């Protein structure tokens, strides 16, 4: 009888969570290159590109109500600039060890854009974007595919994956592995910086990429499959030198993990 009571109890909790599901959507017409800014206190964000000259935003929730002091969506458009802010009210919530509340923000937009996305707690995914791109998560993985241009991304807790053609590259995580594919055509318009406090780093770059290289690991080993003219002393934890004659600085640092530098 007790087992039946608990089964019914948790079934009611699950049904209550789904009963609180909600959704919201809006489309923003554009006349030129868009600028998108997203600020979310607690949401998983996914961005895809399309051929239409508009931005479509769709919010789905589980365990949250949109409006009424639960989840507030503040949005504004001025010309081609679109601002979205998702404000969660973190009230006392009984979860019995399992918090199944979730908010997802899915965006479709043109490929060429200026984008700045910040989530306090949640993963970030983006595919196909080109331009000035910035992403930040307080707690969540960052997965970025087929990008082009300037990329700056960070997370306080989570792995990172980025691929594309880059002019600027800054990737930082406090806890997680970093994997980067800088495709042919990439170059260091300014210094590149890839860092993790806890995790390995794997970086693939064009074989003709020119840079002053600084590779460091506090606890791990360094492997490079691209010729580097080493400057100063060489050891298993630090490599400094010039790649393809040198250029702007390419820094890869990890406090706990291995570093691999490879080429296409």
What this model shows, in words?
The chain is 7% helix and 55% strand. The termini are far apart. The chain folds into 2 domains: 1-115, no CATH class; 123-264, no CATH class. It is built from 1 helix and 21 strands. It has a 21-stranded mixed β-sheet that branches. It is mainly beta.
Q: What's the count of strands?
A: 21
Largest sheet: 21 strands, mixed
Give the total of domains: 2
Radius of gyration (CA) equals 22 Å
Can you give me a brief rundown of this structure?
This protein has 264 residues and is mainly beta. The protein is built from 1 helix and 21 strands.
How is this fold's topology laid out?
Elements: H1 2-19, E1 22-29, E2 35-40, E3 44-49, E4 54-62, E5 71-78, E6 81-88, E7 102-109, E8 112-119, E9 124-127, E10 130-137, E11 142-155, E12 160-173, E13 178-182, E14 192-196, E15 201-205, E16 211-217, E17 222-224, E18 229-230, E19 238-243, E20 249-254, E21 259-263
Parallel strand pairs: 2-6, 2-8, 3-7, 3-9, 8-10, 9-11, 10-11, 11-12, 12-13, 12-14, 13-15, 14-20, 15-21, 16-20, 17-21
Antiparallel strand pairs: 1-4, 4-7, 5-6, 16-19, 18-19
